[in-house]
Amino acid sequence: MLKKFITSVAVATCVSVLTTSTALAAETLKWAHVYETGSNYHKAALWAADEVKKRTEGRVEIKVFPASSLGKEVEINEGMGIGSVDIIYTGPSFAERYYGPIAISDYPFIMRDYDHWQKYRDSGLFAELSEGYKGATGHTVSTLGYYGQRHVTSNKPILKPADMKGLKIRVPNSPLMLMFPRAVDANPTPMAFSEVYLALQQGVVDAQENPLPTIKFKKFHEVQSNINLTGHIVNSLLTIVSETAVGKVGKDFDTVNTVLKESAANYSDEIYQAEQDLVAWFREQGTKVNELDKKPFKDAVTPMLTAKGVPYTLDHFNRLGAIK
């Protein structure tokens, strides 16, 4: 009887140890981004974290670090290589530093509308460029999310390119973001996202450009009297998983990747719908929303899109334009 009791205890102890070891073996991934906790992007990341834990039965956990808490956008991109972060949201304009062609969709007036954007996201071209980025960095582009059409805010109406001459406009610290303001003789001023509101309030810069949902969320309309519907960039966010993270989660990466795609598709639809509703909302708040003829702005930029120095090929440019 005593022997049976000891055997039972030993078996129970082994089961307990194995269960504890399994729990401890859960891989925890750090997801870093620069957006506030109330943003669609952060909420989508939290949803994804819950879904990944559920679908992997706890084998993979994701901790989300919003609002530049693990660094500004340049820093979290660098963090992928040194292992300080595992997953990031980042603009194609920042990924361009590592593999130029991946940024093509964010060049001004190159993307027609949301429908064109969706078809590009699901295209062979995007898959090819994602593989190119992986070849250059080792990291995996999981998916493309919709950030919205970028518009210029200012304290005066901007209706034609000449209205932007000399305008000191904040842009993200990335090379492609300089193209549009330079084409219209503005003065682009790179600055971290977290610093923009105060810079506008104090007159350090005269203007900034972002999609309508971002303008609302960051309350830029409180310190800028005009929103000018230039729609000069149909902007995206890449969700990227580091090479190290893919290795750590092993067979569970397919599940993680599926969830990341679903998460981005969900917030993309939300952002697009918000764009449809916000013009009226801003006008209700007393902000002047100026509709304008985009053609003169596009004409100013067009020669630059195929000029020497762009990071994509003419074939990439033509294939993107041919997507219907």
Q: Key terms for this structure?
A:
DctP_fam, TRAP_DctP, alpha/beta, 9 strands, 13 helices, D-Maltodextrin-Binding Protein, domain 2
Please explain how this structure is put together.
The protein is of the alpha/beta class and 324 residues long. The chain has one domain (28-322): Bacterial extracellular solute-binding protein, family 7 (D-Maltodextrin-Binding Protein, domain 2, 3-Layer(aba) Sandwich). 47% of the residues lie in helices and 19% in strands. The chain has 13 helices and nine strands. Strands 1, 2, 3, 4, 5, 6, 7, 8 and 9 form a nine-stranded mixed beta sheet that branches. Strand 5 (168-171), helix 7 and strand 6 form a beta-alpha-beta unit. Helix 2 packs antiparallel against helix 11. The termini are far apart. 42% of the residues are buried. Its main location: other. Residues 1-25 form the signal peptide. One of its GO terms (cellular component) is outer membrane-bounded periplasmic space. Keywords: Signal, Transport.
Q: Helix and strand layout, with pairings?
A:
Elements: H1 2-24, E1 27-32, H2 40-55, E2 60-65, H3 73-82, E3 87-90, H4 92-95, H5 114-121, H6 124-137, E4 140-154, E5 168-171, H7 179-183, E6 187-190, H8 196-201, E7 207-210, H9 212-217, E8 226-241, H10 243-249, H11 253-284, E9 288-290, H12 295-305, H13 314-322
